[in-house]
Amino acid sequence: MNEPSKRRNSAERHEAIDVSDFVYAATGARVRRLTMPDGTHWFPAVDVCKELGHTNSRQALADHVPDEHRECIETVSRAYGLRIPAGREWRRDLQVISLQGLILLVNACTKPACAPFKQWVAEVIETVQREGSYSLDEAEVQSAAPGAPIAYAMPEQVAEAIVRLEAHNLQLDEKLADGQRESIALQKEMLTMQRELLVTQQATLAVQQAMVRAMERIADRFDTLVLERRTPTALLTARPTTESVLADWRQRLSVTEDVWAVAVVVAPVLVERGELRESLESIAARTGLSVRRVNECLRLLLKHACIRSRGGAEGGAPVYVLQQG
Fold this sequence. Notes:
Arc Repressor Mutant, subunit A, four-stranded antiparallel sheet, 6 strands, 60% helix, disordered N terminus
């Protein structure tokens, strides 16, 4: 029989014990597995050593697993024509061990959880030595389908190991669930405290805003009182207009036609600009009076305190401003 036929027949053979249950009973964990076309299984050495407590996987392989039971995944995949891409899950340089290599590592392990499996292995060896073979009992319930493989009962030690490990896992799950419930309760309590803190902060902010508004009102009132106290009465009165100035001058002196003509020309300038820097000649040209008569009219306004002198401009023209009060 050629090699492909041997591999095909090996792959068609039924496993007496499911390999996942077998490995779980041996190691106490679900370990990654690569199954070849001929039905052989290979396991990442780092996974097995981690679950069995071997801190140095390289040393553990060197001490307990012969070369024929450990290999690089690149070599294994090429031998069987498998394409295993490099990646986080299956690296090309990953060290893998066969099922026999896994059993050898389990036998070298000192974990109490491995004891039932190791006892069963010892029982199998003793039975083979004594009787020449070892066989599993057939299960009480068999498949009625024609050609279906025979189902075997799982050895008591293996079943007990699985049950005990599952119970341990359930306990861990319960502890994890309790921790998660406590964490959720703590998170709810923290959320409640955060909400209360937020309400307190909002109330504090409202009080601070009310205090700011009150202080602004006090400051505005204080500024108003200071302004009323320091501002002279004359500054609080309305700004004079040309009409009000001319009406005031009419009350102060007997206004002749010439004086009124000069007053009508200078009053708007004094009100709008605050001072008069116009030459006598310019005023005379605008009023049609002589320079001498314009000068006399301005002197009359000075005499009756309608205007007052503030010296002269650079060009020699007199400077006049309104007489306030």
